[in-house]
Specification:
The protein is mostly helical. The protein is built from 14 helices and no strands.
């Protein structure tokens, strides 16, 4: 596992140069010199989450003002889908500022942003970008996550679970579904027999989070699942309760 110091190095001037090269192919008017210079002047004292936000904010200055046009440019550079069960800091780490771009600037463009998040998560992750939408449009976003939970694409299925975790690491608590977790549990119930380990771990982590914020509701869910004969469901229950007993 990489240290935070190692991760931070990914998001400095080197990333500005990489993104500039990619964006220039899709948007010839991109002022890569100004963008790279802006990053160089500000990035040195920042941690990696601050660096990701800095990149997104500077990209906003040099991409078209129209959000749909700018996000279409950014999704054009994403490249092939990630075939592997890998997390944020693998070879697709450079996509993280694009997810932050959606998070910061796409909240008033629901459909455009959902399409972008679905493409982002197939390479890196949309788990952070989706959270402002869950707060502003809880019902509408849950419906989208329910659709993704049934997808043939395991990255989308994982996002349905990971994006709705109440205590996602490096993110603020998702309070909206803590007292009434049923909308999230409806997603997890779709995924409880998941066969892909990458998704299984997310479902287990989501239920572990709920054991911390709404113990009784999570306990009832996991006790129900523990009666299942499905080996994948039993694995999820075992992992979810490895540190917190029910």
């Amino acid at each position: 596992m990489k240290t935070e110091k190692e991760i931070t190095r990914y998001f400095g001037l080197n990333l500005a140069e990489l993104l500039s090269e990619k964006i220039k192919f899709a948007y010839h008017d991109f002022n890569e010199k100004a963008y790279i210079q802006a990053i160089a002047e500000q990035v040195s004292e920042l941690g990696y989450t601050q660096r990701i936000e800095l990149h997104a904010k500077e990209l906003f200055k040099y991409l078209p003002e129209d959000y749909e046009r700018s996000i279409n440019i950014l999704t054009q550079i994403l490249g092939p889908e990630n075939p592997n069960e890998t997390g944020m800091f693998s070879s697709y780490y450079w996509i993280m500022p694009i997810g932050k771009y959606v998070e910061l600037y796409g909240l008033n463009e629901f459909d455009v942003s959902m399409r972008a998040i679905s493409e982002i998560t197939k390479r890196n992750t949309g788990e952070y970008a989706i959270r402002p939408f869950l707060r502003k449009y809880p019902d509408k976003t849950i419906e989208q996550l329910l659709t993704w939970a049934k997808s043939n694409n395991f990255h989308l299925r994982r996002l349905a679970s990971e994006g709705s975790r109440p205590k996602l690491p490096w993110a603020s608590k998702l309070d909206v579904f803590i007292q009434n977790p049923e909308p999230v549990f409806s997603i997890l119930n779709i995924l409880k027999e998941e066969s892909v380990k990458f998704v299984q771990k997310s479902v287990a982590n989501n239920t572990t989070d709920y054991l911390k914020v709404n113990y009784e509701a999570a306990r009832a869910l996991l006790l129900d699942w523990s009666e299942s004969s499905d080996k994948n469901t039993r694995w999820i229950v075992k992992r979810a309760t490895r540190k917190i007993k029910i």
